[in-house]
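Morning, I've got a small favour to ask if you have a moment. It would help a lot if you went through both lines with me. I owe you a coffee for this, so here goes:
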Amino acid sequence: MADVRRPGRLLAACGIVGPAAFTPAWVAATRREPAYSAANEHISGLAAADAASPRLMTAGFLTLGVCTVAFCSELHRRLGGDASAGVGPALLGTSGLAIVAAGVLRRDRRSNWPEPGIPVERQSWVNDAHDLASVAGQVSAVTGLVALAARCRHDPALRDLAAPAVGAAVASSGLMAYFARDVVRPGNGFVQRIAVSVPLAFMAWC
């Protein structure tokens, strides 16, 4: 029985491995950027071509995305599969795919503001695709949490997860809405980091 369950335990552990890889990645990459402000700059800039450690941050994106998909596949199974799992695990898994896409499609520049004397250029289609992937990942994560809460609310064994899932969805979506109103607003680096960390904390806690 232990051998049968081992793959499931490994997939479930991905819910911890992903956040545990992503958060230290952006913390470590930030420390390697002497002119980078975590308070004002976006996480994605740490994976740009002109960043000091783009491979480190890209690895963080890819690890989080792949682990999220793996975790959600096990979540889908444990909630009863297609018969009763609902759309929550699929939506959360979609956010993982979007994270992978955001990691592959990197931003053009590390900073939101060009260096003095460097003209502002229109961002590339790759940068545009990265932004779309980031938005898609956030939307699917939030809607997935809401759908998961609805599924858990009707299951006595999982009812205690419903309120935290809704709370995570509301907090993350509210912060990201504030972030999106002015993406280069001073302090938005912290706003983004908190908004991203809330769903990750819920996934690791589950």
Q: What stands out?
A: The chain has a mean pLDDT of 90. The CA atoms of residues 107 and 127 lie 5 Å apart. The helical segments are 2-31, 54-78, 88-104, 125-153, 162-181, 188-205.
